Amino acid sequence: MKNFKLIIEYDGTCYHGWQRQKTEQTIQGEIEQALFTISGLKITLTGSGRTDSGVHALGQTANFKCDTHLGPDVFFKALNALLPDDIVIKSCEMVDENFHARFNAKSKTYRYWIYNHSIPKAVGRQYAWFIRHPLNYDAMNMAARLLSGTHDFKAFEASGSPRSGTERTVTKAEMIRSTNHYVCFEIEANGFLRFMVRNIVGTLAEIGLGKRTADEIKDILRSCDRSKAGVTAPAHGLFLIRVEY
Amino acid sequence: MKNFKLIIEYDGTCYHGWQRQKTEQTIQGEIEQALFTISGLKITLTGSGRTDSGVHALGQTANFKCDTHLGPDVFFKALNALLPDDIVIKSCEMVDENFHARFNAKSKTYRYWIYNHSIPKAVGRQYAWFIRHPLNYDAMNMAARLLSGTHDFKAFEASGSPRSGTERTVTKAEMIRSTNHYVCFEIEANGFLRFMVRNIVGTLAEIGLGKRTADEIKDILRSCDRSKAGVTAPAHGLFLIRVEY
Question: Which tens digits make up the pLDDT trace of A82-92?
Fold first, then answer.
């Protein structure tokens, strides 16, 4: 049994997230369908984790096992030939049969883009959250840095999530100021709860708008109470950048 | 009669170009419809020129005349509230009643983006022409610079175009190397023929791929023969950046 590792870029705009669904188009569903066309086999693709509806990825990682004579280069070319142009396989390699894209993931990095200007953008609007009022980047960055370290992130988890363990270790959390009114929040952690990045970004935005102080991040973390955190930032600003193993 | 000047950004992906059509969605059509909603008047919007189906703009310019008590700020806000999010009014100001967006245009600047990498992009694929094989940027830039000055650009005009005068003055033409495998062709001229930028870029790409030499640009210009130039580059890499008056 061969085991293949894929690195995948996708524009999530038209998809109902990563995870296969019966009736809706998903990234996993599209790739599994292409794998079936190539191999004639019903192959299950294991992603490093789900991404929600509308979220993008530059470096989602997945693996699949397959009893095949085909090599990784054949899968790489055939997948890119078959997949729609909003899903691109960036690499395909054969890996140890024990490699598991989810269980072996050591850390993931997300970036969230905000376009902060009084007038919205038409070009690229599908890749950033438009915020009209001026943001205080320094306050946001101060708050972002308070997320570093090991914390219970339950306050930033989607309410009603069934997960039991909500402690995660954040190894990097900062605001990166870009050109042309774009600003980006980057976070690296050993794992993420459902909506965690978007709930953090929604809270940071409220800090940037002066509705909260940077220090409130500490109280929110301590509270473990979703209602203490800010709004959920929209999906379309979020990118899964890379997964480390 | 008041005269208003608009600067407009749009993502041309979903439109059949600038010019109003009976059945298809166009930029001009969308804005005129919004102007009708705001003013109750059938207003004709005069663009600096047409852009073709699928072409984008960061700074298209247009004007419209209207017998109204409304000021430019009201039009600015109401247009942006009514227009779909792939069309954005960047500014609206009152101008002299003689101002005409097409006749008074002194120069226009276009940019054409190419993504040059062995693997395509999913994110941002709607804003750049994907070319898989390595391009020789220096050769392309050398060729681009030969376009500067006053020339008959008939060889780069869409065949069958009815226009009589085909001489134009190019004040800037160069390749700009960007980050992350993007490269951009920028051209400024006192006017453009139909498909001129896309036919130039198609020719430059053939030079970059080594199928032609940079010097051939001179022969193509002299020939005034469309069949001597290269392919027409696809619409989706092209942006109208600004119009000078």
Answer: 999 999 999 99
Q: Residue A179's pLDDT is what?
A: 81
Could you tell me if A94 lies within 8 Å of chain B, comparing CB atoms?
A: no
Output the CATH code of domain B107-244. 3.30.70.660
Residues in B closer than 8 angstroms to A87, CB to CB, are: 122
Model confidence at A163: pLDDT above 70: no
- Please say if the pLDDT value at position B179 is more than 90: no
Instruction: Give residue-wise pLDDT tens across range A43-56.
Output: 999 999 999 999 99
Query: Residue B159 pLDDT more than 90?
Result: no
Q: Do A2-95 and A107-244 come out as alike in CATH topology?
A: yes
CB contact under 8 A, A11 and B90: no
Question: Which chain A residues are Cβ-neighbours of B89 within 8 angstroms?
Answer: 119
User: DSSP string of chain A?
Assistant: -EEEEEEEEE-GGGSS-SS--SSS--HHHHHHHHHHHHHSS-PPPEESS---TT-EEEEEEEEEEE--S--HHHHHHHHHHHS-TTEEEEEEEEE-TT--TTTT--EEEEEEEEEESSS--STTGGGSEEE-SPP-HHHHHHHHHTT-EEEE-GGGSPTT---S--EEEEEEEEEEE-STTEEEEEEEES---TTHHHHHHHHHHHHHTTSS-TTHHHHHHHHT-GGGS-PPPPGGGEEEEEEE-
- Note if A52 is an active site residue: yes
Structure tokens at A96: 């140890």
The CATH number of B2-95 is: 3.30.70.580
State the pLDDT at residue A159.
79
Domain boundaries, chain A: 2-95, 107-244
Are B80 and A119 a contacting pair at CB < 8 A?
A: yes
